[in-house]
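Notebook B, p. 112. Complex prediction, attempt 2.
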Amino acid sequence: MVVKVFGQIKAANPQRVLLCFLEKGIEFEVIHVDLDKLEQKKSEHLLRQPFGQVPAIEDGDLKLFESRAIARYYATKYADQGTDLLGKTLEKRAIVDQWVEVENNYFYAVALPLVINIVFKPMFGEPIDVALVEELKVKFDKVLDVYENRLATNRYLGGDEFTLADLTHMPGMRHIMNETSLSGLVTSRENLNRWWNEISARPAWKKLMELAAY
Amino acid sequence: MVVKVYGQIKAANPQRVLLCFLEKDIEFEVIHVDLDKLEQKKPQHLLRQPFGQVPAIEDGYLKLFESRAIARYYATKYADQGTDLLGKTLEERAIVDQWVEVENNYFYAVALPLVMNVVFKPKSGKPCDVALVEELKVKFDKVLDVYENRLATNRYLGGDEFTLADLSHMPGMRYIMNETSLSGLVTSRENLNRWWNEISARPAWKKLMELAAY
């Protein structure tokens, strides 16, 4: 059955889900929700996602929102299809889960307000909070030190294999690398640079970039 | 084997893990990390949790951090012991996961800065950001409307049974209900009030409150 994904291909949170589907050969259909026209805040979409965000999915009777929960469900249900995004043992899955939490609580927690201020506010003619950006850059630098250390002894965040732990970072990383002047924070760190070059060379990522047509 | 939990029994994030263990009769030992003395930022603790936060756990060879990842691991590994915190099918577990994400991304995202300003800053003699608090209260009110609606047709956030979806909220809810003047936002909402009364009456929660000795 083709999974319906309500969202925008260019938007970061839906991309977590789409990338999971591309890695695992799961068929999907994107039902476009126009974020510029605030379609996500309208009553029809609120029935799918009551907080007025994207993505939301419909798969037969199953309706879900929250991209990390969606990705984990499909990674588990289709563990034997396409890329194994979880790990074979419960302990390996826990390490993957830990780094997905890290992505949410440390990486995205800083990258998102950075990107909102540097990329999105100028687009809408809103003033950038310059003091906040400087504060966030300092925080981001410290967070990336932890990643650099982790990737010094591990090929991927979860260990030896590419998993959800890496995948979940990719939409946010793309914003940082391609749309801000902060890419130097990554390229100047040997292991982080190696990691980003490797995971962004994956066929599923390239396919997503094609679909997004930036 | 007794699981070592590094943290403080009074702190919200470790409580997610301790509550999971109490619900599931998993033996644990709390190794106190003195947050007032910033022990979590010192090199010894940074080896366990590189971002300088609590909790972290040690269980034989397994070392993990991030409370939601830790709770999910133990809920999965010991699914048949004590309270089933996950759900029986993959689809039920996905709904539980979705509401754990909601707890992190919508509930705690607003409750935490509220509690920081209303409870912690006064304690450390720092000025409370009054404008921010007013902004957060408005957001929190809207978030609680979604919960009220969900709990109108579901006894618990995940459905018919108490799960990680509810458990994950409890440390943050305790702050709101017991240490701020915002408890009215909950008690004025019939279903939310019913839900909180029911889950905070659970023996495991009462045991945690005993151990925390507020």
